[in-house]
Amino acid sequence: MKAAETRIDRFLASSETAFAIPVYQRNYDWTRVQCQQLFNDILAIGADDTQSGHFIGSIVYVHDDVYTASGLRELTIIDGQQRLTTLTLIFIALYRHAMATGKDQQAQRIYKTYLINEFAEDAEKLKLKPTDNNKVALAQIMDPKEAIKASGYSRLIENFRFFQARITDPNFDVVLRGVSKLIFVDIALDRQKDNPQRIFESLNSTGLELSQADLIRNYILMGLPRKEQEQVFRKFWEPIEANARNREVNESRVSDFIRDFLTLKQKDIPNKGAVYAKFKERYPVPNSADLMDALEELREFSHVYARLLNPDLESDPEIRRELGYIRTLEVNVAFPFLMPVYRDFTAGIISRDVFAAVLRLVQSYVWRRFILSLPTNALNKIFMSLYDRVDPAEYLISIERSLMQRGGSQRFPRDAEVIAMLREKDIYSTKSRTRTYFFDRLENHNNRELVDVTVPGITVEHIFPQNPEPAWRSTLAADEYALLGEKYLNTIGNLTLSGNNGRLGNKLFVDKRDMNEDGGEQGYRFSRLWLNRDLQALDGWGVKQVEARADRIAKRFLEVWPAPAIEVVAETNGDEINIFDAEEPRFKRLEYAVFLGARLNVTQVAKLYVEVLEQLLVLQPEAFQGTKLGERIQLTSEPDTLRQAVRVAEGYFVEGNIDSTNKFERMKLALSELGMEEELFIKFA
Fold first, then answer.
1. What pLDDT is stored for residue 206 in this prediction?
2. In what residue span(s) does the GmrSD restriction endonucleases N-terminal domain sit (predicted)?
């Protein structure tokens, strides 16, 4: 490796040299923010005669003894392409301004020195050789005679227009002087002696932070010869990048996709910032057969991943609809399970009906858990290994059985507990997407003429209003009025959908029911929605009606989100039982406990409480210190603030003056917060 301080204008002025951006580099992504900062720096140093230079980072390249058809020396840029491309845009803007204002000599000097290799063939003239998606844009802005036309959005063209608008006659010479003072570290690598990938990883660049996907792409491609880079990129990485994109918001999800892939393969969920490290750990040899096999599988999975992200790509209307519901629920944690199931469907291993049933089963499981407010972090581990439990001979039943066998915080909620919670749950205050999903599924269950509840104007309506007009008090007893406002207001029994929410407002129930202003049929009586059907024959609205309506909706709930109709026995480890499934421990002794796979010979709940908290503090101290979890279990470094201080770690104490039931609850709280619900089993004596 050779490193030297170099002026950027001298680097770009290198004769018979092309600067090639390899396919593994990410797209040109500098925004106006970075461009504005660079341009401000150029103006400042250009106007300051006392400043001789301004450092802008490094440019790292590999020579590789590659020469083009025209005999040009080709440098492969592995770091610094964002700065190099942006500076090229500034030189083009200077060139075009000089051409437009009659500075022909300066224009030709800029053009022939910094932008082209004068004696190369036409196809090889441009010094900068960007990736394919930017080649056309660069060629357009280089030609002052051609109007700039871009098919779709081009960051390259937008940034050129930014510089073009800011270079004027008064600052033209200032910009030229400023650019000539820019200094960078020129790092030339020898592939035979240096490790470009390792050097690339260690660079502390001032540009945009690389994503996990960027690092993985570079790891796969950087070590390959140029021709193989192109082949692997076109065959594998290009389709992966195209498929793993959320088209709704036009964002890449490649990092998430590879994280889900690794989760499926390793049964371990990488942290979002460690996906690249885990990928390298699993495939430690670049260009190995294992890595090529993984790319083949990634490409295959990317086709179904595209439809998980973008359900409209699915041609089957029933599957498309269920995928849309999965997306609305934002059940991305299920992707490591759904990816191989979807692949089985596309391969003809399972039928459409089975796949649709699996998608509905996932919704039932997740939605019932949402109604009970069970911890969502338990879902990661569940879906991580669920596909391994699939029996090809009993595909759907084996998945149902696996989910129904789970206990504790991982359980599939049963009908009775779901209905009990549904009647009282504050549905109105949930996320808008979640609320929409709920009403959509309820309204369109068994409905051949589907109603689009997402159209503008249809909103959630409180039957008993949030701010009822005074006349409501005269129709209800004081205690009933209070109950409607305090207990039932935001529950499902008091909520419906209406396209006339603004008109109905805070009016009395009978007025809402019969409203027909100017023949507009705004009232419930005229509604075509299932959700309003029961309101059309009622003469009043009170607690009795709210509860009856909640029962009616609860019955439909069980039809829309059913539990599997199979009898199973909950999984246990012999006579041991998960703490989340255990009976109340009051007046009971323990025979022993199993925590993190190790047997604890404790017979008192109090000792188990201390042992578990002590180990959790060692494992994840940051989760307790200065957090709500620490407050909720009364963790403190000041023992005098507790009635009975019990030491659980060096300098830390918890309250010991609580009964066994409370100790159980605090252990379960800590385990849930840390995603360790399946790590503590007990056996009562």
1. 43
2. 13-220
User: What pLDDT, in 10s, does the model give residues 357-413?
Assistant: 999 999 999 999 999 988 887 788 889 989 999 999 999 999 999 999 887 778 899
Partners of residue 600 on adjacent β-strands = 593
Would you state the structure tokens that stand for residue 550, as one six-digit string? 């909640």
Distance CA 346, CA 340 (A): 10
Residues in the chain: 685
Output DSSP code: residue 112.
I
Q: Is 444 helix (H, G, I), strand (E, B) or coil?
A: helix
Q: How far apart are the first and last CA of the chain?
A: 69
Q: Distance between CA 608 and CA 602 in Å, rounded? A: 6
How far lies 18's CA from each of 8, 57, 121, in Å? Answer: 15, 20, 12
Task: Return the axis-axis angle of helices 543-560 and 432-444, rounded to nearest 10°.
Answer: 80
CA 157 to chain CA mean position, Å: 29
Question: Based on the number of CB atoms within 10 Å of its own CB, is 617 exposed (0-12), middle (13-18) or buried (19 or more)?
Answer: buried
Write the DSSP assignment of 622-640 as a string of letters. GGTTTSHHHHHTT-BS-GG
267-314: pLDDT as tens digits = 888 888 899 999 999 999 888 899 999 999 999 999 999 999 999 999
As a three-state string, the secondary structure of 247-272 is CCCCEECHHHHHHHHHHHHHCCCCCH
Give the pLDDT confidence of 491-532 residue by residue, as tens digits: 999 999 987 777 788 888 998 898 888 787 888 888 888 999
CB-based contacts of 511, cutoff 8 Å, min separation 6: 523
Residue 304 in contact with residue 311, Cβ under 8 Å?
Answer: no
Could you tell me the pTM of the whole model? Answer: 0.67
Strand order in the sheet with 17-20: 2-7, 182-189, 54-62, 73-79, 17-20, 128-129
